[in-house]
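Re: your question from the hallway

Yes, I did run it. Sequences:
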Amino acid sequence: MPVSPKFAQPPEPPYYAVIFTAQRTPGDNGYEKMAARIAELATGQPGYLGLEGTEDSEGFEITISYWESEECIRDWKAHLDHQIAQKQGRKLWYEHYEIRVARVERAYNMLTLTL
Amino acid sequence: MPVSPKFAQPPEPPYYAVIFTAQRTPGDNGYEKMAARIAELATGQPGYLGLEGTEDSEGFEITISYWESEECIRDWKAHLDHQIAQKQGRKLWYEHYEIRVARVERAYNMLTLTL
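Structure:
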């Protein structure tokens, strides 16, 4: 069975992850449309390696994007359209969020021997 | 407004994250009970710094646990009860999962200035 496209498929480590954990506000307020647009924009950014995200029925969301380098992450953060989305996020869409930038050192999955 | 207990509150970086992204199988098959037990066990492990997790209505789950060191992560992975849960996970609860061990380099949130 092929692995679902919900899973990112970055190359072998090392690479970087931006871990975004967030509590959404009630209602949509333009979120779905902007989130789709931002995800599409990220896909075209230099050094983008993939995205995984999920959200429960109470609006607790975790989204992880994978990147080649810290420099790529900084460039994406500074992207104008992304800046606008970040501002909207703070104002409208999120009660709270945490962002953690991490260097992935090793990786394995259900199909590989564990490290 | 205090930050929801759904958010982990690890100390300042550096620390480590185990990123677990998974597609659940349909049905419970004893998962909820074991997951609660394993989460409680993790809390008591040396070097444990917190947990964040969420799952959508289609069973796509992301759980991230935070740890002081890679050594603590290896010890937790080798814990006997956790080993049993891992085996059940592969056999019963998950269609697929990915595990990434990462070193958190920097962190900020909605309330702090961004880096």
